[in-house]
Design goal:
- The chain is mainly α.
- The chain has one domain.
- The protein contains 2 helices and no strands.
């Protein structure tokens, strides 16, 4: 009845691809803002929007990861309790 808990590790290629796609997306958007034919204050406003979007995305990802990790821990604790109850029940 023992379950094996495996962590799914990411390959180095996947990690490089995710970083490269992030860097390309931010760079392309930044270059688009820089070369946009508008006043400087509008470019600044759009740059701030890009910065806040990146920051909120990082916060969202961290929150989702924390929720997932908390769920994993909770389910492991629950599973350990059930295993303990079953082992106590079977020995009686």
């Amino acid at each position: 009845m023992a379950k094996s808990n495996r962590n799914q590790d990411h390959s180095p290629a996947w990690i490089i691809q995710t970083w490269l796609s992030f860097i390309v997306a931010v760079s392309a958007t930044s270059m688009g803002i820089i070369y946009l034919p508008v006043d400087t204050w509008i470019k600044g406003f759009m740059g701030m929007g890009l910065t806040f979007t990146i920051g909120s995305t990082i916060s969202l990802v961290k929150t989702q990861r924390d929720i997932y990790e908390g769920t994993k821990l909770t389910s492991r604790v629950e599973e350990a309790r059930v295993e303990k109850l079953l082992s106590e029940h079977n020995t009686i």
